[in-house]
Design brief:
The protein is mainly α and about 170 residues long. It is built from eleven helices and no strands. The chain folds into two domains: about 80 residues, no CATH class; about 80 residues.
Length: about 170
C-alpha cells in the first residue's frame, strides 16, 4: 500500500481492484465522470461509465473514449437510463423482447405494468430469462397456465407454475 493511499479516497487508491470496488459504491456523478475519463485502468473507467446517468456525459464517452469497452459501457448505461424513464408499454415490451443488452431487457420488464404487454413478453420473447421475468410479474392466471404448459424452456414453465401457485394461495 502506498503512503498516499492512506490519505486519499479509495477511488484514488493505487490498487485498481480497490478503486473499482470504490467506484461501484460512488454516488457523486462528478466524481464518476472524472474517474470514467481519467483513470488509468480501463476496467475502472468501465465501472464508472456504467454508473453514469447524465446522457450528455454518456454521449461524450460513447463517442470519444479511447477504450472500446468504455464506449460500449456508456452506450449501455445511456440505454438503461432511457428505459427507466419510459412509460410507453408497447415500446417497453419491444425493448424487453429485442434489446441486445441483458440489463436493459431486465429494466424494460421491470418497468412493464400492463398485463397484456407482460403476457406478450412472457409468450414471445426470444430469451428465456426475459420470459421468466415477465412471468414473475403476471397476474393473469390463464396466461400463466398456458406458459406453464407450453413454454419451450423448463425453467420458464416452472416459474409460471410457481407464480400460478402463489396467486392461487393468495386468494
Amino acid at each position: 500500500m502506498a503512503l498516499m493511499d492512506r490519505f486519499s479516497p479509495e477511488w484514488k487508491h493505487s490498487d485498481k481492484n480497490i478503486r473499482r470496488a470504490a467506484v461501484g459504491k460512488l454516488t457523486d456523478h462528478a466524481v464518476l465522470a472524472e474517474v470514467a475519463k481519467k483513470d488509468s485502468s480501463g476496467l475502472v473507467r468501465w465501472t464508472a461509465a456504467k454508473r453514469l446517468t447524465d446522457l450528455l456525459v454518456l454521449a461524450k464517452f460513447a463517442r470519444a473514449d479511447i477504450s472500446e469497452i468504455v464506449r460500449k459501457a456508456a452506450v449501455s448505461a445511456g440505454r438503461l437510463h432511457l428505459v427507466r424513464k419510459m412509460t410507453d408499454q408497447e415500446m417497453l415490451a419491444d425493448v424487453a423482447m429485442w434489446e441486445g443488452d441483458s440489463d436493459v431487457r431486465k429494466a424494460a420488464v421491470e418497468a412493464l405494468t400492463d398485463q397484456v404487454w407482460l403476457a406478450v413478453v412472457a409468450n414471445k420473447a426470444r430469451i428465456p430469462d426475459v420470459r421468466e421475468a415477465a412471468v414473475g410479474r403476471l397476474t393473469q392466471q390463464a396466461v400463466l397456465a398456458l406458459v406453464a404448459k407450453d413454454d419451450s424452456d423448463e425453467d420458464v414453465r416452472q416459474a409460471a407454475e410457481k407464480r400460478l401457485q402463489e396467486l392461487q394461495n393468495a386468494r
